[in-house]
Amino acid sequence: MVVEDDGIGIPEKDLPFVFERFYRADRSRSRQTGGAGIGLAIVKSIVEAHGGSVSAESREAKGSRFTVSFPKQGKR
User: In CA terms, which of 27, 40, 66, 69 is 20 to 30 Å from 47?
Assistant: First the structure.
């Protein structure tokens, strides 16, 4: 599954850290102004708990793409 946008993007220097708990690429944000910095960490935990993987690609001023993959399951 792919989720993408055409927003402001994530700076290249921040991209390796976006799945870390409490990480915010935008230094001006706080819990009071928007978010706790745990959303993508939760996504990663859930996806990995089901044997999958999640990755992020981004280009500033072009947008971001998040890819979630799960292992193929046999028929039940």
Answer: 27
